Amino acid sequence: MADHFLHGFNSLVDWLRANVRPPEQFTLSYAGERSQFIRLNHAKVRQAGDVQQSSASLKLIAEGRQADLRLTLSGDHKIDCQRLAEALEQLRQTLPLIPQDPYLQLNEQAWDSRHQQQAPLPDNAEVLARIEAGAGDLDLVGILAAGPICRGFASSHGAFGWHQANSFNFDWSLFHANGQAVKANYAGQVWDPQGLDRRLARAREQLEYLGRPLKTLAPGQYRAYFAPSAMEEIVDLLGWGGFSAQAVANKNCPLQRLYAGEATLSPLVSIAEQVSGSISPAFSGEGYPRSDLRLIDQGRALEQLTSARSAAEFQRQANGAEAWESPSALSMAAGDLAQADVLKALGTGLYINNLWYLNYSDQPAARITGLTRFACFWVENGEIQAPVSTMRFDDSVYSLLGSQLEALTLEREMLLSASTYGQRQTGSSHLPGALVKRLTLTL
Fold it and tell me: Pfam families attached here (predicted)?
C-alpha cells in the first residue's frame, strides 16, 4: 500500500516539474494513510472500518510572493493531475494580487531523504482476543487505530523526501459502576502482546480502588508522582512556544528565563527532538531536512526549534521546524527509579495518572495550572488508599521539573498522538514518570 502512495506522489511531482514555468518555483507536500479503526464498548467491537486517503498542498512561488492550496486526491493519476493543473492555474492568478513576503526563505538545496519503517502491524484478531482476555466483563471503552502513514515533500530545487511508518495506537478507558474511570494507552511501532497485557492488568488493578470512598484533600503542598500520561500534558503545554526560536526572540517564551540563563531545571531533565527512530518524517513541510536536536541538556537550555520564517526574520539557521515551532518527536531522558518501586518511593502523597485543562497562570514564570483527571490516588506508606476528588494545582515548571524533582522512572512510555481530526498524526512523546517532593494544590 505504501508503494501505491509513493507512486501517486511521484506522478504528481513529475507532472509539476514538467508544467511549472520559470521563474515559477513550487513545493509539494503530501500526506497519505491507510488506517484501520476499531471502536469498542464493554470490550466488544461496536464499529470497524478502513480509511484510505491522501492529500497534497501545493505552494507556488514567484517574484518574492507565495501562495498555497490544499487539494484532496483520488488516487487516480489522470484525475489528480487534472486537480493539480486547476490548483496551479488558480495560484498563478492569485500571486499577482498579494504583496511580496519579506520573510520568504526557500531551501534551494537539493536533498534526498527516503525512509520506510516496515515493522509488521499486529493482527486485529490477536489484538481483540488480548483485549477481551485482559478486560473480561469490565466496561472497556476505546478505539484502536493502526496502519501506515505516509508523508512526502518535493521542490523545484530538486529536494525529495519520502517517509512511511507503520504504527498502532490503542486508547481506552475502564469504567467503574460509579462512573469513575481509569484511562490508559498502548501505542508504538513494534507490537509486544505482553506489553498490552501489562497495561491492561495495571488498569484493572487501579479500577478496583475506584470503588472506595473519594478522599478530598485540603489545599496545600503534597508529594506527588506524575505518570507518563500526566507528564505528556505538561510537556505538550511547554511545546507551545517553550522551545520556539520565534517565541524566544519575541520574549514571550514560557521558558524565557531558561534560555536567558537566568534559571535552570533539574540536572535530571534532558529533552530532545528525537526525529531518528520516530514516526515523524526527517524533513519538514517547508522543505528542510530534520535531525535530532538537544533542546534541554541536564537542566540547561540548548537548541531551539527554528522554522524558515524565523530563520529569515531573526538571522538564524533553519533546522527543519514547522511554522508553529513545536516538537513532534519529543523524547525525555529516563531516570533510575524502577516502575515497580514508584509507590514505595512516593511513600505518602498523590499518584496522578492524568491531567487536563492545563494552561499558564503566569507564563513568564512558567507557572501552570490544571486539574487532576481520571484515576488519581492518595497513597500512604507506599500503598494506595483511596481515589482523590478532582483537584486544581498551580505550580511552576522550575519547581516541578527543577528544585522539587526527586526522580524520573527508568521505564518510559511511547505516547503517540491520538488525534484523528482530518487524518492520523505523526506526533509522539517518549516520557518517563516523575516523582516530585512538592506539588501545590490550590482547590
Answer: PmbA_TldD_3rd
